[in-house]
From TrEMBL:
Family according to the record: Belongs to the chromate ion transporter (CHR) (TC 2.A.51) family.
Protein name: Chromate transporter
Membrane topology classification: Multi-pass membrane protein
Predominant subcellular localization, coarse grouping: membrane
Taxonomic superkingdom: Bacteria
Keyword Nucleus: no
GO molecular function: chromate transmembrane transporter activity
Pfam families xref list: Chromate_transp
Length: 396
């Protein structure tokens, strides 16, 4: 019975994450909004405070933050393999689309498709809905609201991955100074099924691969080994999420003649239009260079560091959360995260989605459906796409 329950839990995680993988358009900020709607508001798999702590921890780690949050939730629900199936469900739909696009890219173009613009408007509505909910919970007092506003202002003026890390670090220091008297001694604990020994081992594997893979790639003439080395390094060392990873990959591939600039940009455009993590751009690039084998190699390589980092971090999170000083740090970090998401709501979400009054009107309707009538996010995607075509054919 216990084994049957475990299998059913894994299947539930897979199905839930697959629905998110099919409907989570709009990039990492929107993904966090979709996760909150599904995992917290609907499934009640974890509470807002635990979710905020996971986001804060993942913000500190290199790699795709939204994917790492999804992996973490899967691990909390179903252990290590829960994280694996959570990642598979969330990632597989966009991998398949981008691999097919790579195979057909010479004749397949979606640059001016109406549904792409509609999905951007959907993302704007979802992000605004999530921001209001997260802001109320994570910045409930004047000091934390001030920290959120300050973080947003800094990120708007200096939009950089390194500045984001500095903002988070500064907010953590400010929280440690200001909020220790607000620490909660009755926090809900969560079970990961991961030991501290597993965490230390995972970190050791990450370090060993970073050292060994370049040596192995240089010693062999295998293109898949070289591909694995490139994408593993990118996944392990890039801070700031999907958009930041693109220029780093471009410098690794285009100047070396592994891919043309036109091929690279075509895949980048398509990656903006699919649901799920932007890191699945690696699936397109791998296919362009080495076919299906290249797609599998590049996809596993770029996401593997996230699994190793999350496995290293989660076993220590429960113990740390019970300490007043660590809670205070996370309070500051969570307030900064609200500000960072607020800045991202303006740039890139609003700047790249709301271009005229028709877009604004559609976004307003979708936001009302989410916020007032509690329509699920997947339905908002369908209604937003239909609304976009209706406005287009009506001449707006």
């Amino acid at each position: 019975m216990k084994e049957k329950h475990r299998i059913m839990t894994l299947l539930e995680i897979l199905w839930t994450s697959l629905k998110l993988g099919l409907t989570s358009f709009g990039g990492p900020v929107a993904h966090l909004a979709y996760f909150k709607d599904e995992y917290i508001d609907r499934k009640n798999w974890l509470n807002d405070r635990t979710y905020a702590d996971l986001i804060a921890v993942c913000q500190f780690l290199p790699g795709p933050a939204s994917s790492q949050v999804g992996i973490s939730i899967g691990m909390l629900r179903g252990g290590f393999f829960g994280g694996v199936v959570s990642w598979l469900g969330f990632t597989l739909p966009s991998v398949i689309v981008l691999v097919v696009f790579a195979l057909l890219y010479q004749t397949f173009s979606l640059e001016d498709a109406v549904f792409i613009q509609s999905l951007k408007v959907v993302a704007a509505a979802v992000v605004l809905h999530a921001l209001l909910g997260m802001g109320a919970k994570l910045a409930p007092d004047g000091m934390r609201r001030a920290m959120a506003v300050a973080a947003a202002v800094v990120m708007l003026l200096f939009p950089s991955a390194w500045v984001q890390l500095l903002v988070i670090a500064a907010a953590g220091i400010a929280g440690w100074t200001l909020f220790q008297n607000k620490a909660d001694s009755n926090l809900e604990t969560f079970e990961t099924g991961l030991s501290k020994k597993a965490g230390v081992t995972s970190l050791g594997i990450l370090a060993a691969l970073l050292v060994m893979l370049p040596v192995l790639a240089g010693a062999t003439d295998n293109p898949l080994v070289r591909l694995f080395d490139i994408f593993f390094r990118v996944g392990a060392l890039v801070f700031g999420g999907g958009h930041v990873v693109l220029p780093m990959i471009e410098r690794e591939l285009v100047p070396q003649g592994l891919l043309s600039a036109d091929q690279f940009l075509a895949g980048y455009g398509m990656a903006q239009a699919v649901p799920g993590p932007l890191f699945t751009f690696s699936s397109y690039l791998g296919t362009m260079m080495q076919g299906i084998g290249g797609a599998v190699t590049a996809t596993i390589a770029i996401f593997l560091p996230s699994f190793l980092l999350i496995t290293a971090a989660l076993p220590f999170l429960n113990e740390l959360r019970r300490r007043a000083s660590f809670q205070a740090v996370l309070m500051g970090v969570n307030a900064a995260v609200v500000g960072i998401l607020l800045a991202a709501f303006y740039d890139p979400v609003v700047q790249r989605s709301i271009f005229d009054t028709a877009d604004f009107a559609l976004g307003l309707v979708l936001f009302a459906l989410l916020n007032v009538w509690k329509v699920p996010a997947w339905m908002i995607v369908l209604l937003g796409t239909a609304g976009g075509y209706l406005l287009h054919f009506s001449g707006f």
